[in-house]
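# nightly structure sweep
# worker-07 picked up a monomer target from the shared queue
# config: single-sequence mode, recycle default, output format = structure tokens
# input follows
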Amino acid sequence: MATYSTMDDVRYRPGGDNGILRHVLFEEWQSRCYWCETPVLFATVEIDHILPHTATDDHLADLIRQHGLPADFDVHAPANLAPICGPCNREKSNNRFPGTLVTGKLAKAAKKQKRVIRRVLAFAAANQRAAQAVAADQALRSPAEVLARVRMLTERVQAFSDTWRQDITTTADGIGLLYTPKTSGQEPGLPLLFDLSAGDAATAQVERGLTEVRDYGGAVVVDGGT
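# output follows
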């Protein structure tokens, strides 16, 4: 997975991993193709450069002047990126469109740029913390503690996705993650992860050792006696 440390890192990476950027762009444009404004599925959406990054230097300079952009405009920055469906991407590549249409799309992307950058950095940081938490899981002493940690990680995922609801299911084969699209206004799904009988030793261990497990902006806190 791509790493992002500074605001300048948040840009399209030709030939690289753009998964987090694609996810954030998809959500910031309300799960719609920016060109035809039709709702699209995340699995089919692509990242489009509003001004083509394949243009020659002279052509790109002309486009930048035409749309009143700064001379150092970065075609790989979020201000020039948007989610697009496959048909529109092909149509846009093969045709020329009125300058006013493109200018309007660029203006929308520019308004979204700061939020896109902020969310990509936050998402990347959360993934890094999740990796650290998974490493810490190796030291957990019981299945109940592992389940409690998985629930905490699930809550964090909910906080970073407006599109996907992630639930945990338990089966005879173990723990599974279930992804479903969120409906408007739907609350994050946080089902009970396990049922332990009152006399079970694991229940007593959870009550003593896991009074509360939460993620406080980067630190996994386990509060309670052991």
